[in-house]
Amino acid sequence: MIQDITHSIEACAAHYGDEAEAVRHYLIDGQARALALPNRGSMRFNEDGTVHADIMAAYSEYGFYIFEGLISKNELADIKSDLDAMRANFPVTMGAEVDAQGRPALGVAHKAMTLQWARPLSDPLGGTQIANGRHPVKLFEPKAKDDAPMVAPFYLAGSLQFSPACLRLYAHPSLLKMAEAVHGKDFTPFHEGLFIKDAGLGAAVSWHQDGDTHWDNPDFNEDIHGFNFMGQVYGSTAVNGVWVVPGTHKLGRIDIVKLINAVGTERLPNAVPIICNAGDVVISNRQILHGSFANTGLETRVTVNFGFHRRASVLNVRGAGIHAEAATFDDAFIKERSRLIGYAIDARKQRFPDEVPYNYAPFADIQDRFKYDDSAQASLKDYNLMDLSI
């Protein structure tokens, strides 16, 4: 049952002045259209153990699919516990080296990107050259409450080094079977992080398509830039969630400025919000046109993000330099970055011993080398310096 967000819709619309009624209808209509799409349900498999053909067809058609209730209550509790611990260790504010208890803050001793901050309800990426300029239009920035902090947490990169629970979710066998179905048995990692959209504070993410490297590739196809899984810790709504334009993952690079100018509003008429309950996991094609508005609602969204690539998309390819410094991903580089999968599989096996673990084909003969313990977790520090960003 999808949560009732009537009060959040009203709170959101109130920020838009003369456009309040238009915003209200946009949110309500978008939610209805999203729930009418045939691209949600439990994870299902064919008789041979592969992902059900209906799921694959819907994902291909719409560019996203919602696996309902995939994260168990026990696993969700683990993730929430880690999230609470991480948040308690966040710097007291942007640039601080200690947390509220005076301890060394999360991420301060790291070389790789970790916690990112943003001004409440701002659009920090829109209209800038950040991430190679892939967010060309700035979204409306509502006014935050007078008592709002100057900055609020926005995104935590490299989350698997900070959260054993997120590491274990990374190896969920059903999700890795989906990765195999899309990208083949030798799929590779991409990047992992936590999107934080606190109620009344969460920043916007302007309309964009992920991916940078392969738009002009003669072998361009709908899966060439990979996908993201988005695990929902508290749920996702029309107010705080990601909006997507179904089917746009097949169209190549879209002129977003031209599109916005043509429709005359940032509220794209064909877009739908990704509506989820806590414990749902979304697979979303990185090429789909998507974005999220500032969270002026009453519910917080935290999304556990992690993605995978087709090996052919990254092997001997020079990265885009968005999530990590640009590098050429040779076989040794990919193998080193993929160790996260090996450790995650063993970590999950320890926590859920009655579950059949996923067999990752590239490590079929060496999986027993990946023994997850405190030392292994510590060895993940700054692993995201090797993110396979394309």
CATH-defined superfamily: q2cbj1_9rhob like domain
> What is the global morphology?
globular
Main pleated-sheet profile = 8 strands, mixed
Write out the strand line-up for the largest beta sheet, numbering strands in chain order: 1-2-12-7-14-5-4-3
| Quaternary structure state of the chains depicted | single chain
Total count of helical runs of at least 4 residues: 12
Stretches where pLDDT is under 50 for at least 5 consecutive residues are none
Helical amount: 25-40%
The CATH architecture can be named as Sandwich
Percent strand equals 15-25%
Kindly describe this structure.
The protein is α+β, with helices and mostly antiparallel strands. The chain has a single domain, classed as q2cbj1_9rhob like domain (Jelly Rolls). It is about 30% helix and about 15% strand. It is built from twelve helices and 14 strands. It has helices at about 5-15, 20-35, 55-60, 75-90, 130-135, 165-170, 175-185, 255-265, 310-315, 330-335, 340-350, 375-380; strands at about 40, 65, 115-120, 150-155, 190-195, 205-210, 225-230, 235, 245, 270-275, 275, 280-285, 290, 300-310. The strands form three sheets. An eight-stranded mixed sheet has the order 1-2-12-7-14-5-4-3. Helix 1 (about 5-15) packs antiparallel against helix 2 (about 20-35) and helix 6 packs across helix 11 (about 340-350). It is globular and about 65 Å long.
